[in-house]
Amino acid sequence: MKIAVAADHAGFELKGQISKWLKELGHQVLDFGTFSNESVDYPDFAFPASEAVAGGIADFGVLICGSGTGMAITANKVIGIRAANCTSVELAVLARQHNNANVLTLGARFISLELAEKIVEEFLMTEFDGGRHMIRVEKIHSFTDN
Question: What does each C-alpha distance from 132 to 6, 79, 97 come to in angstroms?
Fold first, then answer.
């Protein structure tokens, strides 16, 4: 699987740890930065990573900032992206099952590496349920396509 990763300065360290772990699992990691813990603006990294997912270059995205919120807001501005900021495994599973989320955002200041790995693993492994949820997901995009 191809995973687009990106972070701002607050998520830089966790991004590196998650990227290494994803590679060990056999995934291809496309790193959109940042490449240091020097202060940067999260949209500069969230937007191109999200475009890669929307454009089919990557299967999923994992974006990390201090809270996960800024990355999620930015990612969701890209047509075709359904980003979910998840702080638990249960939220990640539901984001995939019910919302067909294709970008996961994490808050590095609020979760441990161990929890982050569990959240990412479940996010990537969980299938979209479709059915009644498909109608709702299609409505999201009907509002943005106009």
Answer: 32, 22, 11
132: Cα separation from own chain's centroid: 24
Determine whether domain 2-144 maps to CATH 3.40.1400.10: yes
Q: Where are the domains of the chain?
A: 2-144
| Amino acid, res. 111 | I
Q: What is the DSSP letter of 66?
A: S
The reply to whether omega before 69 is within 30° of 0 (cis) is: no
The catalytic residue positions are 65, 98
**How much is the pTM?**
0.94
Predicted local confidence at residue 124, as pLDDT:
98
pLDDT in tens, 62-110: 999 999 999 999 999 999 999 999 999 999 999 999 999 999 999 999 9
First CA to last CA across the chain, in angstroms?
A: 31
**Rounded CA separation 126/40 (Å):** 32
